[in-house]
Amino acid sequence: MDKTKISLLAILALFLVYVGISLPAIKEYYMPQNYLLINGKKYTEQDLKKLEFPPYTSIRKNYHNELQNVFYSFASQEIINLEAKSQGIPSDQVINNLTKNYNPSEEEIMAVYDSYKSQLQGRKYEEVRQQIVDFLVNQKKNEVRNQLLKKYEIQVHTEKPPRLVVEEKSNPALGPNNAKVTIIEFSDFECPYCQRSQSVNTKLREKYKDQIRWVFRDYPLPFHQNAMFAHIAANCAYKQNKFWEIFKLLFENTGNLTREKVLELSKMVELDQTQFNQCIADKDGSVRNEIESDVQDGQKVGVNGTPAFFINGIFVEGAQGYEVFERIIEEELKN
After folding, report:
1. For an engineered disulfide with 119, which of 179, 183, 255, 324 has Cβ 3.0 to 4.6 Å away?
2. Are 194 and 128 in the same domain?
3. Mean pLDDT, all residues of the chain
4. How far is the C-alpha of 162 from the C-alpha of 327, rounded, in Å?
């Protein structure tokens, strides 16, 4: 076979490889399964992506996180099946056997009651004690499942999550400026899910210390009637370098943030009350404008509820478990 024929065959082979690689993309472009028609004009996902349409951007960000969660959920179930097989017992007995000796102490039960007291609408300890016990037992079962996951070698490979540029804009922050991981939280003091996420957030900050920088940005939801004033008060405390002190008190009282209660909480922080009262009056609207600017910035990057987090620009939506944040942070620290 002469050199010309060999060259032609090589070119043909490369062409076939190119067609093989390109065909799915070409097919998707010309024959997409998901599209919109307006007066005969077709709009595909590629158009939504190109136009950076916020709701589409949001679902694409969520897709990566949800897919990882699905994989880990599947892995958790498969590991229980493996454990059951190795022990010769039914799968539904594995977790029960590992937690059968766990009985929450009265101190643990009371600690949960005190943490959620503001959301219990005046219900007495005796009325909700069994519910708290059930909650703690389920929490223990989840811990055991996570420990089993660590017993096996698990690797989840998914497409790289999109990263968005989310600025700090001089908002309250904990941790060094040069930390390898920056987490920006959009949150609402009156949101029960935001309150619930604080235990996870605190645990992350305690573990990673100076390896992470944590930034808080305002996102009071319009249907939380007391949220805006709580955020105004927090911003005014921030002007006196007392943000994290009032932050803690506000989240401890998420279910009761009337104006009177917020003012009462502010007196528990060492503030110049004259300066504070002038600030919360907000006669020029500057404090409210700063809060609304945070909300607008959040909306631009796909935030439509609270809490919402950006870990080095990777979006995490809702009050997720500790492991979700830990996985992303660990990956970011490796890079």
Report:
1. 255
2. no
3. 87
4. 16
